[in-house]
Amino acid sequence: MSKLSVRPARLPDDEPAILAFIEALQSYEAAFEANRRQDETFAREHWSVLKERAAARNGVVLIAERDDVPVGWACAYDDDGEVFMALPERRHGFLAEMFVAPEARGEGHGRALIGAVEDWARERGHKVMMIGVLAGNARAIRAYEGAGYAPYGLTVRKYL
Predict the structure, then answer these.
(1) What is the pTM of this model?
(2) What is the mean pLDDT of residues 4-30?
(3) Is 158 a member of any domain?
């Protein structure tokens, strides 16, 4: 029986795994979203931005493990909604990034990461957790809906 766990990232030790997860997610999303960067500097640039946001916004970076081997990750931080939102929901947690390696999917790592991020958000006093997901990422949408999330907004796009 495999041991499933979620723990805070240990930086810089976990950075190679995080960079691999970022690259794998970008590659996966490129299959249904043409604007995904595929250059060799992307993962490091993206990770640098996420680290800065997490640090500036009281964030959390988590690693999911199977038998002490990283198989996924999540990054979440505080976010602010628009002024038209009621105060109890304006400040909320935002799950900016989550990925579970294909060979570990279906084992509960995604749910464990979501649960750990929700625990972090509750500890921060948040009443709401938001997640951004690409419209074409049906697998992620199903996973989030399975964890109790429902569509909130819709961004539409037109290429000119």
Answers:
(1) 0.95
(2) 97
(3) no
